[in-house]
Fold each of these.
Amino acid sequence: MQRKVVSVLVNNHPGVLTRVTSLFGRRGYNIDSLTVSVTNIPDISRITLVITGDVHMLEQMIAQTSKLEEVREIFALNMDASLVRELLLVKVAADETNRGNITAIANVFKAKIIDLSVESMVLELTGEQNKIDGFLTVLGEYEILEVCRTGITALSRGPVNYHV
């Protein structure tokens, strides 16, 4: 089994995301992670998918997705030549007895404290998936109240190598 990060450039129209994800669902393939945003070209959106499967399945899904009318370009990212990040927001129960320890952990991982109340803290961390997983493991010593992760987003390094 391989894990691929796939970038799909699509027309920025209503329902495009549904058509792309429905294709995966109809074929019985799971999407591990999904992010979508408008690109620097307003009529084009980028869908970043993380999918796991054997080589044949991954090639088949990329080929089938490329046939959708709204898809302008699709390619698997070369992980050695790409920047891959995820955003985490986590709310932790914090009072005067543990706030210092949680702040120390945040400093080690270079997380930001973006909200503080009498009973909790909200921390923000951006990074690779294993860094975020490690941060959550260490924070597991404390009471985690809420977690929100964006899923992976990625760009290849260097010049743009697609034409939309």
Note: The first strand starts at residue 2 and ends at 11.
Amino acid sequence: MQAPAASMNSLKNGPDDRGRFGTFGGQFVAETLMPLVQALDATYQAAKKDPTFWEELHYYFKHYIGRPSPLWHAKRLSDELGGARIYLKREELNHTGSHKLNNVMGQILLARRMGKTRIVAETGAGQHGVATATVCALFGMSCTIYMGATDVARQKPNVFRMKLLGAEVRPVTAGAGTLKDAMNEAMRDWVAHVADTYFLVGTVAGPHPYPAMVRDFQAVIGIETKEQILEAEGRLPDVIVAAIGGGSNAMGIFHPFLDDKDVRLVGVEAAGRGLDSGETAASISRGRSGVLHGNRTYLLQDEDGQILEAHSISAGLDYPGIGPEHAWLHEVGRAEYVSVTDVQALEAFQLLTRTEGIISALECAHGLAYVAQIAPHMSEKDIIVLNLSGRGDKDIDTVAHHLGTKL
């Protein structure tokens, strides 16, 4: 395996040499951090050209994570909805239960190359935190995870898992106590401990090179999907759908298909209680360009440019921004960005459970809710692939609460 290849005039060529996708991305960080992000960029650029780096990563992908993940033809779901044939890319079957471990494994190998001994990370739903704590246990590295206090309360099983794995979990009470606030604190920690600490970012956001680097590690999802759908159907899918918060799972499956212009790419944002309710996480649909966490992208802001709190039933989508490459793909029109509400996601969560025996994460249920909208209006010859990027164990308490069941 190598980093995803790009050709002349390819949409896969970004970012430019300043780390930008059009006007988005970049390195908007404190002077203290600039040498660190530049050193990380140099390390990653060298690793990309080093076959031994990819051989080592591929070894862990296969023997520790369990790749390739299956591409499942969801026949009962397809029959229930009517219309298109629906496939599920089963990233929730990876070790630790989500796509997050793909990126985390790549970054921990880079941290070791840089001689770092301590890892800090941020997490929302806890999937990235569990993945980070897992590789720190595997390689014997110190691990500190920042997590919003609100998310600590609604994702208790993942907090316990992180602690079992040896990580220190630091609740963040600032702001709404969600992912944005956790990322702020993780960056402050990084600034204060630059000598030995590596900041392991969980999504395609942050200062360059994080958006491109995380994308490259997650692109294994799309590379496998292309091979698997060609084997199963003899052609590429008509539509690929993925939920987006920061957007790492979506970028991972989208990127290898960017130059396949007949394949629709659809990112599904969390509308929360509705796009116009004031309680949403749909940063493309209701946001505008601004700077947060080291990069320029679409953000939820008030009239004065202050960042607004995001809302979603899913902790993993509860972020007021989106990765800069998604912002660029939206503006150039290569990918479409739609939204579904908490209620629609909850209905889709139950639909998949009932028809396929798969309890998905609430994040993925947003993608499925959009699939349920479009599949009945498509032909039986049409193919949809949904990236099922996480499993729903962590969300059982949340779902039970909203369905009026006390566990």
Note: The radius of gyration is 19 Å.
Amino acid sequence: MSRSGNSKGAGPRLSFIIPFAGFLVLAGFATIALLATLRGDRDISQLPSAMVGKPAPTMMLPSLVNDGRSASASVSAVDFAGSAFLVNVFASWCAPCRAEAPALALLSDSIPIFGIAYKDRPEDTRDFLTEYGNPFSAIGIDRDGDAGMKWGVYGVPETFLVDADGTILLRHAGPIDRRVLDDVLLPAIARLP
């Protein structure tokens, strides 16, 4: 056996050590995330939003006029200036949006809701509202998804709480169920000045 052959096999190879060290780092992060989830410190359904604490986008959208409550040709978050409101991004093709319809109806008794019909055809949105009710004070049509992008939407439904100054206070991704209503949105609305 040659001397060079012994030195190759005696020490650990970098081609093994580097991937193994990378695996240990990733396993460490995964373990920390898993433990936080098991302790209840981490809500896996909520992704961070860069929009919280920032001004609400003021992009004008074509208004969906379906029952006389939205009378103007365009609508924006600016139309709600001076009072707190919710923004709900929804679509007729979104099954979870159907599930949260009763919760939105309850919320509409407490606060105005600006609906953004995301990547939806107006006729499909109207059919959706006929079937599941219309809790919205106004609805903007976001056919190409540009407004959703400005709001930082990952998917529908998403709901934002905006204060009277137009600052986004809270974002909820996913359907509003009883727990979200009672533990997140209604307490946040109650804390508004």
Note: The longest strand covers residues 85-90.
Amino acid sequence: MKCRVAFAGNPNVGKTTLINAIAGANLKVGNWPGVTVEKKEADLVTKDMTLKLIDLPGTYSLSPYSIEEKIAREYLLEEKPDIVIDVVDSTNLQRNLYLTVQLMELEIPIVMALNIWDDFKEKGYRFDIEKFYELTGVRAIPTIATKGVGKEELLMMIQELCKTKEKPKMPKYSTVTEEFITRAMELIPSDFPYPKRWTAIKILEGEKDIIDKFPEPNRCMDLHEEFEKVFNDDAEGVIAEERYTYIASLIKQTLKSTEKRKKDLTDILDSIFLNRFLGIPIFIFMMYIVFKFTFDGSGPFIDWTDGFINGFIGKWTSAMLSGAPEWLQSLVIDGIIGGVGLVLTFVPLMFFLYFFLALLEESGYMARAAFVMDRAMRSIGLHGKSFIPLIIGFGCNVPSIYATRALENERDRKLTALLVPFMSCGARLPIYALFTAVFFKENQAGIVLLMYLIGIAVAIVVGLILKKTVFKGEVPPFVMELPPYRFPTGKMLWKSIASRTGAFVKKAGTVIAATMVLLWVVINIPYGAKPQDTILGKAAVAIAPVFKPAGFDDWRPVAALIPGTIAKEAVIGALGQVYDVQEEAEGEDKATTFNEDIKEQITGFFIAVKDSIRAMFTSIVPGVFEIETEKTPLQKKIKESFTPLSAFSYMVFCLLWIPCIVTLGAIYQEFGWKMVGGAIALTTITPYIVSTLIYQIGLLLGF
């Protein structure tokens, strides 16, 4: 016997973890047809049954607004699974039951998994499972997905329901609404493919997608208008209120608390982090600490990596290629090792940044940060929910473009996607690290934090302008569920760090390596010519005067911006090539044996570990966290070419300018070429205006 089992539930309630526990981590991952939303499913063969488990996208309701809601609803209506496992967060039962009630209206057999049952009991709650079944016809099984608790009972119930196909009882609403539902059901043809009661409710709500399928849609619209007239309210609001009233009745009869609920850790911390006066200063302080620890902890490892790539790999590769043509040696040493190696030098920096961001995300603080910043955003007319993908953009702009799918409104999705590139992703960090090390060594973390805040401020201003011009419209209400605070496990942190750092290294080995080779070609044709007489040099020299108002009209930093269009990390490698610093570095090589060099690198690594721990430990004391390092050849060149003001202007330009070609690809995939054109125009004009303002005002103020 075959049985298709769909897992539905609110976001982050543990659906995927539960499927993994039941199916033994046998998930197959793909995409839902026609969209890029992830589709997970697993097959499980039991004694007398073959089960196909399908993980539906997490949704709060089955309204046809967000992509996730559309996918979940379409699958349940069109594919008609045999049963649905409704996974709920038992600690937040009332909110989760809203989706449960909508699933009941679809007349599909349901088993409810009361997940996070350990926290539920810890909070002193009791749930009358038998009474709930008596009232709803839905069986409930307590589960703890992360520990596999309840998976056998749930599997047994799944198999039983696959055989019995017992449907839930229909929720009962007020007498007037029930009369309207009865009248609407009379309008539905007998061969209509969807459940009658659910369809009737959609008629009353006036949902055009459903009503347009009827031979006489006008009669349905007349009934919808009459329904709104009787209640003197929006039909969707009336139905939602009816559902919540039904849920309140269920909760009253089934959920009990054994003792008066005391304030838990979440309540205490939220009273501080969500305080209307303290929330934003605490968020800014948190980000400052993140950057400060990131720089202090990663500094020794950056120095070691730089020495390993240039002093070890570069040196011995050069020795191996000693008999090769000069151009080949230059391509490998200057182009690939010099360019990609310079980018890889910053891997420790990314690792530390991703560690602290993962710590904030997994602990539950990042959701609070979004909530706190929402107040500021909404005060100037922007949608609060949009701040969530923007915060994700601190790590990488690409997933934050995809995160805009969580927004119900297409206009808000597009507007948020256009603002995402202003969020300073990790790829910009190496640029900040390089320039702050040269010009702002005394306050490196503060200047980097300022970059992030400038990105947020520009996004707010640009968003406000677009909202008043191109994207006019009402701001929908902001609904957000805050997860409880948790101690992040090592496994969770490692998964987050490894995937992000791995993506950075992969990009360095593919996109950036190809960019560096291409850059080497355009900077060496004609071969042997002066850098400014090469293809790249001539192009940069031609456009460099345009950047004079912004303070950096030297052709070399302008040339470095060109490959930076492909990937921000490439700016660093390009600066290394156009300033021709590799040759200077090579001159510092010592005459040592291969074994002596390996021994030196291993010793150097352990010294870096020791220095990093010392720097991290002492960095809480102001003034002692600075790590003295000798300036690299590239830093010396940059110091000669920039002033502190022009360097700051250049950093701001890099912050606000087109993030990378992968982000543009994500925008194309989600919104098409028109939006890509808009994003390019916005991220070209905005950084030029802001950098010019900063430089010109800075000059007037005497910087």
Note: Strands lie at 2-9, 28-31, 38-45, 50-55, 83-89, 110-115, 125-127, 139-142, 255-257.
